[in-house]
Amino acid sequence: MSEQHQKSDEMSSPESPADGTRKTKNQKSYDTLAVPEMSLNEASSSETLNAPQTPTTPSPKKNTEWSMTPQVIRNAQRDKAAGFKRRELGVTWQNLSVEVLAAEAAVKENLISQFNVPQLIKDMRRKPPLKSILSDSHGCVKPGEMLLVLGRPGSGCTTLLKMLANRREGYHTIKGDVYFGNMTPDEAIKYQGQIVMNTEEELFYPRLTVGQTMDFATKNKVPFHLPDGAKSVEEYTAETKQFLLESMGISHTADTKVGNEYVRGVSGGERKRVSIIECLATRASVYSCDNSTRGLDASTALEWAKALRAMTDVQGLSTIVTLYQAGNAIYNLFDKVLVLDEGKQIYYGPAAQAKPLMENLGLMYTDGANIGTIPPFR
Description:
Structural class: alpha/beta
CATH architecture: 3-Layer(aba) Sandwich
Order of helices and strands: HHEHHEEHEHEHHHEHEHEEH
CATH class: Alpha Beta
CATH topology: Rossmann fold
Shape: globular
Number of helices: 12
Strand order of the largest sheet: 5-6-7-3-8-9
Oligomer: single chain
């Protein structure tokens, strides 16, 4: 088990990354401003997906680079010049099982039942009925890797994401091992600011504007000493805020209230993008995103995925994303895929090998369908 634990790179320098960091020929040095190439086998049509791929006939590629990747690289170079160490942190888990109280365990309390001593004693002696949400899951996300968790609603995707984000409250039984680098969940609590989760439903102060919300988010993660070029904290946070707003294309909403069901504000898709960049403002090492494309149009969802891919590659993040459906353009940006069905893990491995494996099992790909939605993906 100890060989599977990824070591935290909080004490290592950029020149000597921790063991387990993904190294590919496509990862460029930060000394250049060139946008790093991404060796992603991204199919442009169903015909190219069905075509056999061999080492002598490479698969077609699309332009998957993000428009703001050069700025991400410049920020990384500036942090390196200022002496900031890369805080890389991998996540591993094995034999992970989660149980909750079943619905029949609920008791309707009233004045009489609270003083029914024989019934209370009887209830204390018997074991409560439990329901398994997650069963014997295992996996590993190294710094610089992106994991896509696929499954239908109720298959345990959110529960797995919460376990990997070290959010363990509300569950009856949690079995198995989860490690953040070489830290146990209890040891990782004090580093909770580096292990963040973008939940499906986010809460905001609805009467604050988008700009005010991001001002507060960016001021919570100001380094002890500012990098070169930043004259003050206000200038540093303003630059970070502007970059995040532009990354999701919502700069025009800076003076608009966030809003909610009762307060008029930005649209639902824009509010979702605010929650995404608010999470990115934490400058964390492990990012978990629960169905973050809900409410986004196809082009915005793809830009979000490209942004995560660029930040993961340049900054060495460990990124875990759950989606109910993923188009080919988004699917092929991920390194690994984990498929859940009713709490059971039915596939875990490289994203490029999932489709051939499913076809060998007799689950054929149909023209026009997405790889991430073929049975049992859907």
